[in-house]
## 1
Amino acid sequence: MRRIGVDTGGTFTDCVLVDDEAGLLMVEKVPSQPASPDAAILTGMMRLIERAGLKPADVDAVMHGTTIATNVVIQETYAPAGVLATSGCRDVIEIGTQQRPQPYNLLHPPKPVLAPRNRRVEVRGRIAADGAEVEPLDEDAARVAIRELIAQGAASIAVTGLFSFVNPAHERRLAELVREETNDAYCIASSDVSREPREYPRFAATVVNAALAPLLDPYVRRLQQRLADSGFSAELYIIQSSGGLATALRSMGERAHNLVLSGPAAGIVGGVVTAAASGLRNLVTLDVGGTSADIGLVADGEPRLRFDMALPNGLPLHVANLEIETIGAGGGSIAWVDAGGALRVGPQSAGARPGPVCFGLGGAEPTVTDAQVVLRRLNPAGLLGGGLKLDRDKACEAVGVLAQRLGLGLEQAALGIVAVMEANMAGAILRSAARHGDNLREFTLVGAGGAGGLSAVALAATLQIPRVLIPPHPGLFSAAGLLSAELRHDLSSPLMIDPDDPDVAAITSVQSELEDRALRDLATDRIPAERRRCDHALDLRYFGQEYAVTVPTAPGERFAEVVRRFHEIHEKTYGHSAPGTRAEITAARIVGRSVADGRALPRATQTDSGSEGRRSVWFEETGGYADTPVVKRFSLRPGDSVAGPAIIEQIDTTTVVPPGWAAVVDERDCMIIEEVRP
Amino acid sequence: MIDPVTVAVIGSALKALIGESGDSLRRSSHSPIIREMLDYSCALFNAKGEAVAEDANIPALLGSMTYAMPHLLRENPPETIEPGDVFIGNDPYRGCTHTLDIHIFAPVFAEGRVVAWVGNLAHHNDIGGTNPGTEGFANRSIYEEGLRFPWVKLIEAGRESLALLRYFENNTRDPIASLGDLRAQIAAAKLGVRRMDDVIAKYGVATLEAAMAERLDQGERRLRKVFSDTPDGGGSAEGFLDNDGTGDAPVRIAVSVEVKGDELIVDFAGTDPQMAGGMNCSRTATLAAVIFAVKAAFDPASDQTAGSLRPIKIVLPERTAVNPAFPAAVSLRHLAAQRITDTIIRAVTQFKPDLAVAGSFVGFSSLAAECRHPRTGLPVVMADDLGGGMGGNALHDGLNAVDPYLGNVGLLPMEICERQYPIRIATTELVPDSGGAGERQGGLGIRRVYEFLDRCDVVFYTEQTKGEFAPWGAAGGAAGTPARLVLERANGEHVPITKNRLLVDAGDRLVTITAGGGGWGAPLARSLERVAQDVLEGKISPARAREAYGFEGAS
């Protein structure tokens, strides 16, 4: 099978071609074109095809990771959406939770509202908690309201009604009316976006969808068209926030908002795939860039999935997404001393411009990267194989000013800057792990991104994570994830059932209906029957609780057994459980997926000629500069090992192996770094 | 002396473990007041009980646990405290804020002694007493305000006190939620203790203690620097509660605030005597209000520790509404605390020009209903608290529909309410024209309508219903509108209420309208585009646009 993975990033579009039969893996990097991302994609793909001596029609599948939705969300360049609400709902998305994002700010800036009040109209109609109709829908008023929304400039319409997750009749009828009254304006109902209770997050997700789809759908269609025009006949798949692939068709419309974390999700999946090949299934993935670090948790080969998230502007979004914790800690994070004399690092970042002081682009505040250059962990001679020159003297000057304020020596201050940033990262990893009661001693830390290798071992030591893995190409993480991701459908249906006296027929019928839908979707996606798989789960909670725990279930399993596991998971997650206390089942969930064909990716062959260099590097453990071997990453072959202290360099990253730790290259070309037991 | 790097690294670890403890408490609690409305707080203390790291979601709880710890330590001499103990307390006359805020503290042991404490407090829906939801504006004494735990062991050396738990269970109107929440609190504290054990194993007791001490000193130095950088000066203000909960006479809060060198003095001389009803602000609650106001006015970005309290001198005359004597009732102290905060802020605006703000809604319109669960018939207590408009300020219009100052509790979702309680919320909407006119307009209030589907015993209350006490305008801006509650009986009768306890039946409706914020700056200086946009959005009426802003409409 021949596949191309295309990951559009902020700076580069990475394209990777894999030919399983020929055992070939080929990479092409082209500059991204934010105005027309599809142009860069086509350029990269055509170059790959040419280099491989193939024709477009020879490619069997194209997998795409995109930041287009992420960018709309960050830059708030949404399409103008309107809201058609039933009784009592007009202002829900503006009032939200009535909380202030900055509780200590009395000069508070405005909260974001995706659809201003003149593009929100309410019509009579109310469904009760049990699904009964309390107040009939006023269809005449609705028709007038729809025309008013269009007149106010709405390009799309979100239909929002209370308890539509129990009975969507009003929402569905309103959506029909929108189609009748408009020239096919995009319309989405909250019950089609989420089946979870709590009106604000559900409505907010619906409005986000309505504000994204008119921008994303044309992009996906254009990309499909351009691929076809260029002679590609392969199916186009796009990676979703859940880390699963979906066909282009299923990435549009009611699922458009699933693309919000498309890019970062590919990175986590890349970590899973890379580590799985090395036999590791419990992972903390750490992707450190210039301004932020993304932290993901993978237990038993499955990335942690959650069903809600918050956008950068605070809006909640109900969508299946990988649990990625992003903190403002990266190479560009600025170190400063507050009025009380406390050392702080970040969240302000020097970014790419002006960048760290040592880049010589005008940066004046000392950053983490400057500290790493002072300590000579980063090569003072330059990075990116000499493509980026560094000025260590300037870094020393800036860190020196801070050192003076703290009453410390230069290197102590540099060590301190790194230590404080690492402590912030460690705290974020601890909190991520704590959410599920994970024991970090059973995990492997995967260091990725340009700066992951600098801190990975130090973090592992702090967190008692026994092992670090550095993939051969930390920069190709996302593209590798794309090529190996599974196609998946996450479906759920709300229930309200007492497991001690379960209505088995009701649960079974909901589950088989979900399974039918999932299998039908997989079939439409042209997944062969033998590769379709469905995993079931039930949501349970103690009676009176509102947050539920998802318990995986086997078909035909006894409810007593499911309840027993619920208590167990509750104990593990929260540290307490109450067996014997009444519980209730609140939802049935299913994941329909295509089972991967199990083939590992071919290896990208690369060798460094090269001799080992040496430089004087400061480690905390050595308490001073130590003459340290500097090893070229691809001079190492599988089976080779390097004892710390050592610095391992490659074009896109630098890995620090402190004293007492040793790196071994495994058969998959990954570096495994572990503490040396005396 | 300990180096600043170690202090920062340990500080980061302490904040992470307290955050983790808070996550665990919220996610595993039972009642909506904790998990939806986030009315809880977690903190870590040194052996002396001074907070060194906090995770406060509700500003009202900021710093407040620091005032509870000395009472615990006084009542429990060191030789009586053992590893595995967990203490409970909620008595406002033993350092707590009101009886509903249940505090849980667990000692952290090392080298055979207590080296730190992990604590949390969570607002419970009910803890017995005269009224459903325990809070009562007309309570005459603390004896009407439910169970009061002195600082006793709920868990003794790892063994749960079944007697206490069963007694507690037997005396609250919503035992399933209360016990579930208490369990979540205990687990959160124990988790914090386990994480502290890891920190101690890594850094050792001496380093940990030095780092905690230095964190407190850093907080103190930081705030002293802020006061030093502020020119010496002062201001004073008065604010009023509508009444004392039993009569109709307003209750005066008087405060003067002065910056002197590197200190701040907050003096409540001139405040009215303690009230006959239940809105007295317990000493701890008043101190917490001062801490919030000082942080918001002077140093919003600070990392709160007990060290930040040292440069603040607070004068609280005894037997007053802000420092009542036992056994005055204090359950609704939040109403007074909000007014106290608003008054301090008003005083500070007189001498700190960059605090250019108008007054915000402090009425906290609420209800607590004793009722039956719609599906199971089991007893439950529903509680909901509404925000309103925030004052406009020199930079922005006031926020619409938020819980200002010490508040910041979440709104009860309409779908959660109707699933858990026999109460249907018909609408939740903004109130047009409620914000005070100004160059920066006050934020809008909320209108929420509750329809009762079954008989409920309800305590309704709101403050700020009188026009003269509505959110104040500043720099030429106008005041916001006052709050209003109306009970619409099924038989068509409309009963205006402010603070009432009533039985309601299926078909009765409560209409709650909260206040809009005060306006900042001269209304005529407001840009006409903004006025036009507000008219378009229906946030102000054409009449208001014409009268307040001279806006004649788009031609």
Note: Chain A is about 30% helix and 30% strand.
## 2
Amino acid sequence: MTQTMVKSPGTEMAFIDEVCSIPGGEAVRSCIQCGMCTGSCPTANKWDYPPRKAIAMVRAGLRNELLSSNSMWFCVSCYSCTVRCPRDIKPADIMHALEIISIRSGLSTKRSRTPIMYQCFVDSARNYGRVYELGMMIKLFMRTNPFSALKLAPVGLGLFLHKRMPLKPSRIKGIAELKAILDKARALGGAK
Amino acid sequence: MEPREETKIGVYICHCGTNIAGTVDVEAVAEFAKTLPAVTVAREYTYMCSDPGQDLIRQDIKELGLNRIVVASCSPLMHERTYRRVCQESGLNPYLFEMANIREHCSWVTEDKEKATEKAKALVSAAVRRVYYQEPLETKEVPVNPNTLVVGAGIAGIQAALEIADSKHKVYLVEREPSVGGHMIQLDKTFPTLDCSACILTPKMSLVGAHPYIELMSYSEVEEISGYVGNFKAKIKKKARYVDVDKCTGCGECSSVCPVEVPNEFDLGLGMRKAIYRPFPQAVPNVFAIDKRGYPPCRVACPAGVNAQGYVALISQGKFKEALEVLRRTMPFAGVCGRVCTHPCEAECERGKVDEPVSIRSLKRFMADYEMKVGREKATPIERTKEDKIAILGSGPAGIGCAYDLIREGYPVTIFETAPKAGGLLRYGIPEYRLPQKVLDNEISYVEELGVEIKTKSPVQKFEDIFNQGYQAIFLATGAGVSQKMGIPGEDAKGVIHALDFLKKTSLGAKVALGEKVAVIGGGNAAIDAARVAKRLGVKEVSIVYRRSRAEMPAASEEVDEAEREGVKLHILAAPVKVLAKGEKVTGIQCIKMELGEPDASGRRRPEPIEGSEFDMSVDSVIMAIGQSVDKSALPKELEYTNWGTVVVDPATLQTNIEGVFAGGDVVSGPADVIAAVAAGKEAAISIDRYLRGVDLKEDRPAPLEKVKDVSKEGVESKARQAMPTLDAKKRAGFAEVELGFDEKAAIAEAKRCLNCGVCSECLECVKACQVGAIDQDMVEKTEEVEVGNIIVATGYDAFDPTPLYQYGYGRLDNVLSALEFERMINASGPTAGEVFLKDGSHPKTVGIIHCVGSRDEKYHEYCSQVCCMYSMKLGHMIREHVPGSQIYEFYIDLRCVGKGFEEFYNRVLEEGTIFIRGRPAEITDIAESPEEEGKLIVIGEDTLIGRQRRVPVDMVVLSTALEPKADAESVARLFSLSRSADGFFLEKHPKLDPVATMSDGIFVVGCCQSPKDIPQTVAQASAAAARALAMISAGSIEIEAATAVVDEELCSGCKTCSDLCPFHAISFDEEKQVSSINETLCKGCGVCVAACPSGAITGKHFTSEEIMAEIEGALV
């Protein structure tokens, strides 16, 4: 791990405030750094900075380092941490808040496909009112590594044979209204 | 051991769970015990101290008829009482019981089972053999004194005192400081509830001040404790507060006129207080005290004891008139001594150790100048209260100094002076440009206005003439006014004049023709004066011929400098050998060059002539200034003289060989300085007063003043003394004064440099200001003895001084504060009224608070101070409140929030946005590495939660310092016979089961003197100790140890060795029988007398030789 000196006059407050401004992130101040979240996390060993440390880094103002790490993208939203947190602060929500800031700041990592997958998922839902799995997956593989699709081919074939993966997308009624709702929600969330 | 049929011993071996049984083979020990003589039964059991265990003993006593019991278990300290009670309940005398300690002394100190078992057997055997010889003893009961002594009046002492007093029992509450309140009253708010410390404490403080059952002894200290539980005697020293507690109304008038300001200890030096002060406005008792540390060095150094600090302090406040009044309490010569004094005071001035001494002499002169400028009111004549007339011969400084003191005592005083005007050498020996005549005239008239009669042109030939005129005593102070001769050829030629004659003639206005060139012989003040006067009379070339080097000149060096500046030439290392004359007229002097040899008796190097180095100087006249002596021809023959021609006196009383005649000044000492002469006059005045009152001259004479010991120079910034303005050298042709004196601004600035060494300057302004007459400057400390049954020690703690932690920069870097300092700063009633300021006067935007400073650090204190986490967070919270928008960083190792509402407070502070950084900071620096760090303090340390080193720039750092035992804890422990634990705090009897009692019965410890703790715990302990004391009071009596010593009167030889050694004063001497006798109530059974008695007449009951020998034998078998 790099051991550079942290010089952060005042920036920690700016970062804390930024995280607090995202719904779900406001509890970052209350953390008592007990480590229950990291201890409960099934994927913690994959994280550059496991959840407890990620929160400590928010409070130390290490913005770029944290937002460009793979950390929060490994959160699989199992909510074990949230169930067990003694301060009731929902660490998973903080991780999602960090994901939002990371994407907005253009810092999201290339070492995880999750940011792109989230985008493909949201785009698909926005276009059709529901997820069009085949299109979304093709888009994801095209934007990441097309060859990795081969690994998932048997799963895809199985889904297809069980009629669980239609070839054509179906669009809901009133998609325009949905788009308007989603755009409004984005604007309210502070997105550009 | 004689077999004794009737003796039946029961032995009980305790397992103490596995504490004993884990190491000692208890069954084997029991089996072994059965084999011991006189043992009837031996058993082992898991817990002998438990009810079933005790029942075993009871049952055996009953059924087997046991009459001696041995229990082998833990320490007697733990359970001796338990088993004695068991015996007693079963009808057995408790002293027929013995305990063998096989736990602390055996199983706990080894893991070797075999050896442990062996030792246990030996201990049991020893106890069995001992108990065989033990005899039944009867315990005694003594009454318990219902009064209680509480030592220390912080929250612990206050709480304990109130609890006891509320039950209508008398409490003596002793507090060392002038006010009660302790550390708690220094705090602003208290965690976690944030209630104001003063709001919850001041009501209790005023209650202890007013409670009918509490006698508050503030500003007092316990000096000695004697006696024993239930019946202690305490000697309490009531320090002199110099203010009458009963009269003082706390109005504060005294403080407002006091000129002395020193840092206020209560505010940790962040604010100032006066020398007469109360630590804070809500003080209880609401009474002032004067801080007197001793006499300042200036005053001690002054031969006349002039109170320099007093007038300097008043000058610093612009009170010039009052300042002069202070000087005049000692002597009348402000203007004179302000100009010509040799100022020994300045040599001793403590300010000189910082930079330069205070210009005390110039300040003295300033007061006189100021008075002359604004005009002096005529002095009020002093009422004659005494009949005896006193004659003083000579009106120099000694004569006038003496007259001044005597007239103020109410004596009629007449001065006889030969010369046409009064003043002696002050008038005729010191030239006008150094001491203007009008200054001298003014001060002499002041003395005359007081009532001293001065008869000039009145030479006195015989003492009888004076005595015949009705005078009762004479002070001879005629000085040493005759010039010494050199003894060289041509010395009597016309044109050779002696310096004193020359100076006198000039001052009388006579013309002295000197010619164009003058040589002045000598290196003293008279020589310099003569040379400078000659220059002023228009002599073109004035040379001073002196036989040693310039450094050896006795004249004041600044005078020599001035002389040179005025054009006087110095011929050093030259001595005249002959005066050259043509007929009667001087034409020159022949000199010889000198070199310096070995030091002589005076320590100066002796000048030796260089052979063949003679040279001639052409001069028109010669002024001889090589010394003065006493003019014996003008004095009565019957006086006794020394070989030097001075008058012999008793050095202490200044009495001569003639009854009623005293002498002082130059006539006794030979030529000396003005202030020494004034001092001699004052000393003579004391003697004369005593002589006339018929009091012994020597006994109880005022002792020399004792100098103050330590003078703090902490934080004193270097500041040079004010320069003395002088007359331009070109304008010095006439006799105008050369030194011009300070103006008001310079005088005040100079006076402010004074360090106030003695703190109280004894200017007596407070005495004048106090309308109820409460101030008593002569108060002395008193000792009072009180009798009490219980003592509660609540002496508190000291805050750790973080200076040794150099890396944190305390005392080195600005804006690094200790927590207690910060408490005072943020306190609404503190020196800044609660405003948080940086050194530059701005408010901090970021503050770092460092926990565990001095705690959890084996270099200082290994222990956790328990309150720092919480008070640090409280301070963080308060800063955010006082400085809106400020950012707080808490640097911690662990957060220990262990109390009711503490964790909740932590969460609150977290959510407020305080940033917690885990890790003990390594250092604090002001060396910036980036623009953001410029002008800040940078806290460097590891943030262990992210595993990185961090640099956090802040404006201010607060060090959360440890609580440590008071600096004098050791002597307090000795005073109350307390033990201290490894951390230095007072040791409680048992950490869990007896936390407020101590090993000394009847003495309890509460609050932070026992260990660091917070206010709720302290209050709980105080109430607990009060309950313990009240329990004893309500029982009314207490059982006293029966194991005391007894004297066999047949054997006692009456040598009294024992009575001198007894630490409890229990042994007295029976004069009738001529033997010692022991008071069983006072005897603690310590055994000192038993061992000391040379005839073996004293026996310690329960520790007889027989018992001890048997025990030793048992252990060894």
Note: Residues 113-133 of chain B form the longest helix (21 residues).
